[in-house]
Amino acid sequence: MACVDLVSACRAFVHVSERGSFTVGAAAARTSQSVASRRVAALERHFDELLFERSSRRTRLTPFGRELLPAARRLVLAAEELQHEAAAARRRPVRLAVPDTCPAPALARLAAAARGHRITLELRTAAPEARPYLVRAQQVRAALVAVPPDQARWRVPLGLAGLDRPRARRRYLETLRPRRTDSAPPRRVWLQPEDDVPHIRDPMVRLRDAVGLRPAQLSVAATLTQAAAEVFASQDLLLCSPLQAREFGLHWRPLGELALERTFGLLAAEESDAERLGGRLGEEIAHCLGAGARAGEDGEESGA
C-alpha cells in the first residue's frame, strides 16, 4: 500500500472507530461511505487482519483493531502536521537580493509572478559587492550577482548615454579625447557602482588609456543618482543599459570600440533555490535587469 493510501486508510479507520459507524465516520473524514469502506477494507487486506466486527446495528473494533488504533492516530496526526508545515513553508518569504538598479515596477511584476508559482518573494536591493555577502551571511536565500561573462545566465548590453542625440549609431570613446584648443573641461564617462566590477571596469580603463583620455575622464560615481546628475549638469556620458537610459530620458548608443555587457548569475545557499527561482522566474528576472534589451535610434528601448 502506498504511503499516501496508507494515511488515507488510517484516517478512515480512525474516524469510523471513534464514531462506531461507517456512515458517520466517513462524513467526519469528508468522504463518502463507500470510499471509507474501501479504504478500511484495503487496510485490512494490507495487514491480513480484520479491524472491525461489522453488524447492522454498530461497527465494533476487533482486538487487533484496538491494538492498531493508537498507532493509526499518531500516523494521521503526523500527516496533518506535515501538511501544516508544508503550507507554512510555502508561505514563508524567499529573500532575494537584487541590484538597486532594478526598476520598482519590474520588481513588483517579479513578486507578482512569483505568487503564481506559490513563491512569496521578499526583495532586497543591494550594491554588487554586498549581494554575495548577504547570501553567505544567510541574510537572504539567494542573490543576483555579477559574474564573469562565461558564467552568465543573464546579459545586459551596455553603452553610452547622454543628453545629446548623436547622429551616428555608436558612440566612440576616442571622440572624447581632449584637444589643445578646447577651453571647456574634458567630457567624462561615469560608471555606476553596478559596473565597478573587473570585467567591465578594467576593459574601460584599458580603452581609456589606449585612445588617449585622461585618467579623470573615466570616473566611478558613488550612486547611480550621482552619476546621472553629473550627466544632466554637463555634456558627460553615462555607461548604462538601454533600460536605464530610457528611464532617465537619455539618448543611448552602443560603445564603438567595445562590446560590453553586465553579466549576472544566481547565487543561492541551496542549489534547489537557485534552480527554482531561475527556472520559474527567469524571464521576469531578465526584465528586471534589462537583459536582452537594446536601444533604437531615438534612444527608446526595443526588443532584442
UniProtKB/TrEMBL annotation:
Residues 5-62 form the HTH lysR-type domain. It holds the Pfam family HTH_1. Keywords: DNA-binding, Transcription, Transcription regulation. Signal peptide: none annotated. The keyword NADP does not apply. GO terms for molecular function: DNA-binding transcription factor activity; transcription cis-regulatory region binding. PANTHER family: HTH-TYPE TRANSCRIPTIONAL REGULATOR, LYSR FAMILY TRANSCRIPTIONAL REGULATOR. This is DNA-binding transcriptional regulator, LysR family. It comes from Streptomyces qinglanensis. The lineage of its organism: Bacteria, Bacillati, Actinomycetota, Actinomycetes, Kitasatosporales.
